[in-house]
């Protein structure tokens, strides 16, 4: 399953956006209002839970300075990744798109597509406010 957000304009340079996203505690600022739990486990992992949903642990998988950050599921039960693509639009502006890749069976994909799409939309929208 593949979900991608439209580009979001962030009023910060690509280096500043990249540094914001590589500091995992900043993801709490991007989370939806219905967040129930957020905890940084170590410099490469954090967990979060939205009300009524199970806890999800994300782990940093890859990073390319100022261009890309990949977070993935820490568990192999539900393999997925969340990638932030950062493009410079000038010294004080960037465009960020988020993409989600998950390997789910058809039934699971049908159940999670709308909540994941909404979640990614919220992350993207909140990115524009950093």
Automatic annotation (TrEMBL):
Domain of life of the organism encoding this protein: Bacteria
Protein name (record): SRPBCC family protein
Lineage: Bacteria, Pseudomonadati, Bacteroidota, Flavobacteriia, Flavobacteriales
């Amino acid at each position: 399953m593949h979900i991608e957000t439209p580009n979001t304009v962030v009023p910060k340079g690509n280096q500043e956006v990249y540094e914001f996203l590589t500091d995992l505690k900043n993801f709490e600022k991007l989370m939806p209002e219905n967040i129930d739990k957020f905890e940084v486990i170590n410099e490469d992992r954090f967990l979060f839970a939205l009300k009524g949903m199970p806890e999800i642990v994300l782990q940093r998988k890859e990073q390319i300075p100022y261009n890309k950050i990949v977070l993935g599921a820490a568990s192999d039960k539900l393999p997925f990744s969340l990638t932030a693509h950062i493009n410079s639009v000038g010294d004080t502006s960037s465009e960020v798109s988020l993409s989600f890749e998950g390997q789910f069976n058809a039934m699971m994909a049908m159940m999670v597509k709308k909540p994941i799409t909404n979640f990614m939309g919220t992350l993207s929208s909140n990115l524009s406010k950093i």
